[in-house]
Amino acid sequence: CWVLPNQAYQKLRRNGFSGPTPSFPLGNIADMKKSLRSSSSSSSLSIRHDIHSRVFPYFSLWQKLHGKVFIYWLGTEPFLYIADPEFLRKISAGVMGKSWGKPTVFKNDRKPMFGYVKHDGGINHKHARSVDGPNHLWKARNRRGDRNHEHSRRDHSEDELRNELRKRKEVFKKLRAMQMALFKYTRYVGVPFSNFMCPYQNSEAKKLGKEIDAMLLSIITSRKSNVGQPQKDLLSLLMAESQVGGSSEKKLTTSELVDECKTFFFAGHETTALALTWTLLLLAMHTEWQNQLREEVKEVIGDGEIDATMLARLKKMGWVMNEVLRLYSPAPNVQRQAREDIRVDGAVIPSGTNMWIDLVSMNHDRSLWGDDVYEFKPERFKDDSLYGGCKHKMGFLPFGFGGRMCVGRNLSMLEYKIVLTLILTRFSFSLSPNYCHSPSIMLSLRPTQGLPLIFQQL
Length: 458
Ligand code: HEM
Fold this sequence. Notes:
Elements: H1 3-14, H2 29-40, H3 52-55, H4 57-66, E1 69-74, E2 77-82, H5 85-93, E3 100-101, H6 104-107, H7 125-143, H8 149-155, H9 158-186, H10 199-225, H11 234-243, H12 254-285, H13 287-300, H14 308-312, H15 315-327, E4 333-338, E5 342-344, E6 347-349, E7 354-358, H16 359-363, H17 366-369, H18 409-426, E8 427-431, E9 439-442, E10 444-447, E11 453-457
Parallel strand pairs: 2-7
Antiparallel strand pairs: 1-2, 3-4, 4-7, 5-6, 8-11, 9-10
Protoporphyrin IX containing FE binds near residues 275 and 400.
């Protein structure tokens, strides 16, 4: 618990990395909790986008004392904190995809959420294909002019649909409850025997995990037995994709399908839904951008049916999405674990080192973005659609980087544009006077007090 991590820590220190002093067995967790408590008491009516010191107050403080690269401790696990894109470039330059893993310390804690983390040696290739698969199938369906979606829905017996919808709602409710339970529990990540510190949350998460698996299993099994009456939704597309070619290598097992569903909720649904949520906030505050996007949708799509090629032509909407991901990145950090020694500027980051890359800090770094860093300015992506004028190519990583980059980025862009198009063509919206700006991290970056909006039908 202590000797090995401490040896790793000493190696890092010898290589010139400093950081806040840890104590046994919590590491720096007590300081982190204390600083969070004082910052979270400050939900406010004024909306400021410089959120770093609010959502990561401890990192913001330690940066002032130790710079943009330092060591801190989660329990008995040392983490190398990184908010310097040049340092990140250097350490990732010579690293092959397989030499990066996810910190093992998170593996067990998050198991009820993502069964797939067992494939830690790299992205599960079946998984990657199936996440991108719906995208291809969606395009293919539209190319073929197959518009039988509604039709096939009607074919499906009403009772079965109702039954499945009820189960799906229940699954979502339980997944959300599991997230809350796990969030409290994972605050003691890295602390030896932390299972006993939050026994209720821990057993609750495990219980919910089992219930969710059983419900998803029953949905998949009943889908499988309904040959010839497919629903055209993501699960069916995944199931169809897993059958394509029919070879056993390509097929997903039922338990892999269950894992995929959970991944879609946490890695896929949550992130895209939050990107849309923050977009609604920013568009409610900037009605000129609401109007610009509405105009663009009118020009590109008109009254016709949305298809993938049209979505690609919604350029301004793409800028808005990027600017939202910059200011309010739903995935606020990226984690890595070195699987081999990494050499950087004569120093060595030893194999096994955990790394915590702070995306919120880099997205709000004045030295990378300029004096307008806290302003909502989608036009910064006009001439530089990938980096928005960021002074460093590794300074804007909303979907991560390298071999472990988000496998759902294309899908999320499609979902985002479809949903936003549907909202913009039906409603105009403004911020409710009851809105309280309360961004905080609960695994993802969320408005903890919700986002009340006033909608007006167009
Ligand atoms: C706005 C939406 C999204 C954002 C901001 C986002 C962001 C991220 C980030 C930052 C990572 C970590 C990458 C890394 O470690 O380098 C990640 C990983 C991942 N994302 Fe996304 N994501 C989004 C949507 C989606 C969607 C729709 C899916 C589809 C299911 C998805 C599936 C995944 C998976 C499976 C991984 C893990 C990859 C691995 O470590 O093997 N994401 N995402």
